[in-house]
Amino acid sequence: MSDSTQKNRQPSLLEMNDSVAYITLCRPEKHNAFDDTVIKSLIDQLEQVRTNPAMRVLVLQSQGKSFSAGGDLAWMKRMADLSYDDNIKDAQQLALLMQRLNDLPIPSIAKVQGSAFGGAVGLISCCDIAIASERAKFCLSEVKLGLAPATISPYVIDAIGARRCRQLFLTAEVFNAQQAKSWNLVHDCCEVEELDAVVDACVQQILGNGPQACRASKQLIADIARGHDDLFQQTAELIASLRVSTEGQEGLSAFFEKRKPNWHPEHSE
User: Fold this and answer.
1) What is the pTM of this model?
2) Among 176, 215, 174, 177, which Cα is nearest to 198's?
């Protein structure tokens, strides 16, 4: 691929098909490493997904052999030559990307076909569900460069726990998909040839559930994890509001009438 083609190509692509959004990292020649341009592109695309009421699931994926090599070394070298204040602004953008992905109202799935290093582990941790191929490798490699996995750390620690992070942050060891599954970084792993089918099955499973119920359940988990002040009242109000909602009424009716609810892909009038 020529330099001019690479320059003009979008670093990530957004496709919205019916109710499913796909964001694809498109720098396979760079192992999908991200820099400030990629980060901005991803933030903008996440906002498009968030504000589109038709979207019910997001799949985050990549082109090529690698899911993502994390931070682009040329970008990090460029930032090292700038001031502390410039680096603060730049790091805040990466932190914003992680926050936007983590707080996306709809379910998100990381489709990990290959290696995920550094900040890429943060992207995976911010998704609700992660499915990896058996050939995927993982590494929190920042300390090898004299850095720390700072902006991704809240999400990685939440995913795999502080004790495991002590090991992986400090050793920068490479681990495989089965280890990632046993440590809760990914939820399922399969042969790379089966990855599309496994992810598609997960998407269809989510689409069979109530859209507003999925959003409410995701927010419920976040509120409980953050230690909401009055979970007694909040949880009671949530289930009550869902029971009397249009979606809740349809879901209960469909169950008792032994039919698919109107949001289900297999619903028929």
Assistant:
1) 0.91
2) 177
